[in-house]
Design goal:
503 residues; alpha/beta; Rossmann fold; Luciferase, domain 3; GMP Synthetase, Chain A, domain 3; nine-stranded mixed sheet; 17 helices; 31% helix; binds adenosine monophosphate
Length: 503
Amino acid sequence: MNVAVLLARAALAHPHAPALAHGERVVADYAAASERIARLSGGLIALGVEPGDRVALVMKNHPAYWEALFATWHAGLTAVPIHSKLHPKELAFIFENCGAPVVIASDNTQSACEEAAGMCPGVRHVIGIESTAFARLAAAPPLPLVPRAPDDLAWLFYTSGTTGRPKGVMLSHANLLAMTLNYFSDVDAIAREDCIVHAAPMSHGSGIYILPHVARGACNVVAESGGFDAGEIFRLWRRHGQVTMFAAPTMVKRLTEAREDADPAGLKTIVYGGGPMYVADIQAAILRFGQRFAQIYGQGESPMTITASDKAVHRDSAHPRYLERLGSVGRAFTGVEVMVAGEDDRALPLGEIGEICVRGSVVMQGYWKNPEASSKALANGWLHTGDVGALDHEGFLTLKDRSKDLIISGGSNIYPREVEEALLTHPGVAEVSVVGRAHPEWGEEVVAFVVRRPQAPPSAAELDDHVVANIARFKRPKQYRFVDALPKNETGKVLKTALRSLL
Ligand code: AMP
């Protein structure tokens, strides 16, 4: 089934329900959105592309992004959502690799896309969403929905990658449908009156929440700032109500610490994930906004869907293992199998630490034109996530760090996350990242990069006392480096490689 069917059905069931809003303003109901998407699809096909061809979407968050995405699917094409802040050379690599004949850009990405297209003879059209060319696409005769088989590609998702060249994760229509159904079964129910506010990039984290909301005829609200503005987000909660949002942990932290007045009455759910959420941070967020949080753990290769902690887990604060549960990433989604594997790729006993592997209908088809990486990632029928963790006797999965981030000092394994969690419980610590530095005697030693709160900046000695009071001595940082900010990639993940290179 073509996932665009979900939108066509919503238009039949709820033609007058708001489908799309830009900031506080509703710009289309489902009937109007569906009509415009059929026309845009007709316009795309008139450019001479054929079902299966790729369309690169390089846009800041904008309602036209949502339209272009569905138009691409409706026409049987494959969407390639690309982060809007990439350098022209990075764009050129992806355009060339995926072989997209058409690129759709927004005003802020147009010139970078044109520069990149200049390096890629395969790109035949770069169309800006504000241009007359886009208006012409939207005026084409409507195209009937092009059917797609379950394994046909819907989405080529280039991994953000903190190292190496990005790889195109091949997600089929069946993968995206499985992801949608798993949201309903394990994250949250969605009603027609709900909406999703897109404040994180729709090309990444926020984009995968579009489908479950469209399936229920809920409204997709695109924050107008196109970026992340806490004041605007709070206004959108008030204006629209019943709001769900996806937020990376750093965004949750910024919302929690924002000075603006926030009435959480209009907020239904914040789904967080995409990076480690520290226990101290989620507790502070719950204190400010109430029990409105759910967590997902996923990766591009198994989008949104490996494990989840729903609101019930967050609410159950009387549970004797509440803090451990908060520090975990929850339990396997209904539709996936999760295995913690040892070196031989077999399941380890509960409690033991190994590589997290996933199997199920949400798992990618492989990497685009990269059979070697595909067969490595999908060896023995399991997706090898590259993440390391352990399952407990109640089925909760706790992530340790990625294997390359593990610090081995004097033969002992030290998981940076544990040291980071301990440091973050100190009131003077705003952000922290822990890495290993080569040491002639111990192999590696622990170094902590710390962003301090300006009001009461703690000294290294104070932090050391704090760590020793909370975790084993051998894990304590041998050095504290005080920095103004941590280096992060475009999706907000801390670049540990950059920190290591500073050492
Ligand atoms: P990406 O493919 O860019 O979405 O990155 C996926 C990676 O982010 C995963 O393999 C994990 O390392 C990390 N990640 C995703 N969700 C979580 C989470 N809830 N907690 C900790 N790390 C996460």
